[in-house]
Amino acid sequence: MYGVIVTAPGGPEVLQVAELPDPVAAPGQVVVRVRAVCVQPADIAARVGMIPGGPVPPPFLPGWDIAGEVDSVGAEVTEFQPGDRVVGMIPWYLTRGTPGGYAELVAADAGWLVRVPDGLDLASAATAPLNAVTAHQALAMLSLADASTVLVTGASGGVGGFAVQLAAQRGHRVLAGATHDDEEWVAALGAAEVIARSTDLATVGPVGAVLDAIPLGDAALPAVADDGIVVTTRPTPPTDRKVRQQLQLIHLDRDVLAELVAAMGAGTLRTRVATTIPLREAAEAHRLVEAGGLRGKVVLTA
């Protein structure tokens, strides 16, 4: 099989196509023939070596989110069979590229995977694991009371877009920060009020809870009421205000993933794919993501 490996810390050019041994399913594992891999900022961070725990020595495979078909199953696996369509999250924070998703075939623990509903395309499914589960877990960390008001920054992005929908569906009033010309999409996700990203958040709220999905860090704090809470998706500097600051770091939750993917299949949870690019052209995909300005996720296809 082939994969796209990081050959050294650096720019997109360090992503190189390489021939790799075909994986074999160990007991409890499934070999997935990968059809779609979502390109995440975490992949770029791994490529340049700016990740928790320090750089991963190259060569290694990036990639958290995979969708495809089961190619083979190992002993003790009874819930999947060859041909099943699946999506899952490689817990890259544990595997650190062994395995990673940028490959034709991936040996994945069966517990990382869930079925893809009929009618949900694999590229869309691949946008769900890291972003949608992060949004779900971040909202849980906010511990919102019934009918709360919550501010979501980065609502045009993957985590923020899912968070707006999940919060609104739970009956919360969502104030959502959107990039320019993306207000219509964010409003359609269920936001009660869409706020331009350029807005000084000192003029918003104060609200009891902020999910800072960009994150803005200090710039988001003026919107938080005293004794309120802000949850961020990356570390931000501490504040001397009476505000709780929590960092949401993704952890694998198969039940939540199955629930979210089912909602996507039913059409009650929306996502956006900006473009699909062949896996062999992963370097170009990284350039696009780093350039910004996209409306949706970049997905690698094989």
Question: Would you summarize the structure shown here?
Answer:
The chain has helices at 41-48, 92-95, 122-125, 129-142, 158-169, 183-188, 254-266, 282-291, and strands at residues 2-6, 15-19, 29-38, 65-73, 85-89, 105-109, 113-115, 149-153, 173-178, 193-196, 207-212, 224-232, 244-247, 273-278, 297-301.
Structure, explained:
There is one protein chain. The chain is an alpha/beta fold and 302 residues long. It has two domains: 2-127 and 272-301, Quinone Oxidoreductase, Chain A, domain 1 (Alpha-Beta Complex); 130-247, Rossmann fold (3-Layer(aba) Sandwich). Helix content is 24%, strand content 29%. The protein has eight helices and 15 strands. Strands 3, 4, 5, 6, 7, 14 and 15 form a seven-stranded mixed β-sheet that branches. Strands 10-9-8-11-12-13 form a six-stranded parallel β-sheet. Helix 4 packs across helix 5 (158-169) and helix 4 packs across helix 7 (254-266).
List the helices and strands and how they pair.
Elements: E1 2-6, E2 15-19, E3 29-38, H1 41-48, E4 65-73, E5 85-89, H2 92-95, E6 105-109, E7 113-115, H3 122-125, H4 129-142, E8 149-153, H5 158-169, E9 173-178, H6 183-188, E10 193-196, E11 207-212, E12 224-232, E13 244-247, H7 254-266, E14 273-278, H8 282-291, E15 297-301
Helix pairs in contact: 4-5, 4-7
